[in-house]
Amino acid sequence: MTFQHEHMLTIGVDLGGTNLRIAAYAPQSGILDSIVLRTRLEAGPEAVVDDMCAAITELLERHTPTRPLLGIAIGSPGPLELPAGRLHHPPNLPGWDGFGLLDAVEQRLGRKVILESDANLAAIAEHALGLGQSLGIDSLCMLTLGTGVGNGIVLNGRLWHGASGMGGEAGHITVEPNGPICGCGSRGCLESCASATAVVRSAVELIEQGKAPGLALLCAEEPLTAERLAAAASDGDPAAKSIFAATGRYLGLCLADLVNVLNLPLYILGGGLANSWDLLAPALFAELESRSYVYALTAPGRIASHGMPQGGTQVLPAKLGADAGLLGACILPHYAAVPQDSLSSSAPVNLPCG
């Protein structure tokens, strides 16, 4: 992506269920400055917005004396209704149902703000700065594996929002009909089976059942995390290895559906859990091969892969890592390519990614 305003400042916000990250950015220099805060969910959405806007204001005061502001963009977990900027039953933001996030932020800042799904922003970043750029691919589907599972889809260089801004909720595709209850209210969603939260829950259940003595010892030292479980799996712990194999299987089930429906050239797995790619990939690809006839025909080197970008359907770990969502928020105002004063927040951002 070529930026037309390389010296101008943008502020990007990544609103997560655990952390709130705010960054000042300019294309010529990258991230100039950042503030990381704990997301005070227990205090309610208004308090979180207060924290967010205070941090945005602080970064503006530090950097607008030397750089003109192009825009401010926020990535939020979904489901997110656009253009209203309202959240509906967000599984990872309890107490935020019906909250008008866009209005709350704009009223406090006295400025127009762009609001977008956090997974969409991760997809934008991978398209413009990551794998999409390096592979020369203009359409992709991205899953972000963190506290929950987000999904962003770029079609022919444009974000796919759906009719009400809620397009791309593959985290709530059912992969285990009788599986764990998901935060959305359903059972066995990908999010409840293959997120970092789900990995830790699976480990706790095995410990309680007496089936994971090695993980019980690990748990006695300090709280379990997906990263510690991945290290245990890499060291050969059988229970940890089984958890990541099951997680890879669930991801393969979901990806098989996505490949069959979308037939895109590139599928990306991002978020913290994707750092365990080597543990997830064997079961993921085994499931994908057996469940998706489109993948079986279009994987690199297969009979129907000729003429596809990069020689076939690619399924790869993200290039930008955990910063993809924040970078996506930082570059989103550049897509609009107009000064912030003339930006309208009354319509979903559906802008070219290339």
CATH superfamily (homologous) name of the largest domain? ATPase, nucleotide binding domain
| Relative helix content | 25-40%
Total helical segments: 12
Sketch the topology as an H/E string, one letter per element. Answer: EEEHEEEHEHHEEEHHHHHEHHEH
What's the rounded overall pLDDT mean?
91
What's the CATH architecture name of the largest domain?
A: 2-Layer Sandwich
Report the top-level CATH class of the largest domain.
Alpha Beta
Name the beta content range: 15-25%
Main β sheet profile: 5 strands, mixed
Strand order of the largest sheet: 3-2-1-4-7
How many domains in all?
Answer: 2
Question: Tally of extended strands?
Answer: 12
Using the coordinates shown, work out and report the CATH topology of the largest domain.
Nucleotidyltransferase, domain 5
Characterize the structure shown:
- This protein is of the alpha/beta class.
- The chain has two domains: 9-118 and 322-342, Nucleotidyltransferase, domain 5, CATH 3.30.420; 130-317, Nucleotidyltransferase, domain 5 (2-Layer Sandwich), CATH 3.30.420.40.
- It contains twelve helices and twelve strands.
- It has helices spanning 45-63, 101-109, 118-128, 131-135, 190-194, 196-208, 213-221, 226-234, 238-262, 277-291, 293-298, 324-336; strands spanning 9-15, 19-26, 30-38, 69-76, 80-81, 86-87, 114-117, 140-145, 149-155, 158-159, 266-270, 314-317.
- The strands form three sheets. Strands 3-2-1-4-7 form a five-stranded mixed beta sheet, with helices on both faces.
- Helix 9 (238-262) crosses helix 10.
- The radius of gyration is 20 Å and the shape is globular.
- It starts with 8 loop residues before the first strand and ends in an 18-residue tail after the last helix.
